[in-house]
Amino acid sequence: MKWVLLIHILGATIWTGGHLVLALTVLPRALRARDPNVIQEFEAGYARLGMPALLVQIVTGLWLAYQYLPSPAAWFGFGSPVAVHIFVKLALLALTLALAMHARLRVIPKLDADRLGVLAYHIVAVTILSVLFVVVGTGFRFGGW
Ligand code: HEM
């Protein structure tokens, strides 16, 4: 449990930390220069770490959730604060994956200076979701915020 939690927290530093750097430093630079390449260069390096980190978060997160509530049906039952936290985490995950798929399939293939704004909204939204993952995560052991 200790090791899984450690890996989960390390993954969180990569996923949330990387997105905060992207949203707060790389994105403003790209918008100022009206240059999508600034983001693409960052993504080329970050994707190698960020995507495996998200995968690790999903696997370790599901494992941790299973330790709290060994019946996955209870994750959707709102029967306790822990169940609500697990449900919210899964909802955040669904939103994150939907935004990522939309960006990859619809926005990035046609990306140019005019469409940079659409990508900016995606980046800001995924970054807010990534911070919410951490906020909800720290609520588990204190029964919520
Ligand atoms: C990028 C995605 C995620 C991030 C950034 C993230 C981040 C965090 C953080 C910072 C904690 C606090 C750990 C602590 O209090 O010591 C946590 C706990 C937790 N997370 Fe996540 N998480 C993510 C995805 C998930 C997913 C998909 C699940 C699956 C339901 C999940 C389930 C849990 C559980 C059950 C805990 C409680 C662990 C404990 O306190 O013992 N997480 N998460």
Question: What would you say this structure looks like, in words?
Answer:
- The protein has 145 residues and is mostly helical.
- It has one domain.
- Helices cover 80% and strands 0% of the residues.
- It has four helices and no strands.
- The protein has helices spanning 2-33, 36-68, 81-107, 116-139.
- Helix 1 (2-33) runs antiparallel to helix 4 (116-139).
- The longest helix is centred in the middle third of the chain and has 33 residues, at 36-68.
- The radius of gyration is 17 Å and the shape is elongated.
- 16% of the residues are buried.
- Protoporphyrin IX containing FE binds at residues 5, 8-9, 12, 15-16, 54, 57-58, 61-62, 64-65, 68, 86, 89-90, 93, 130, 133-134, 137-138, 140-141.
Brief overview:
By secondary structure, this protein is an all-alpha fold.
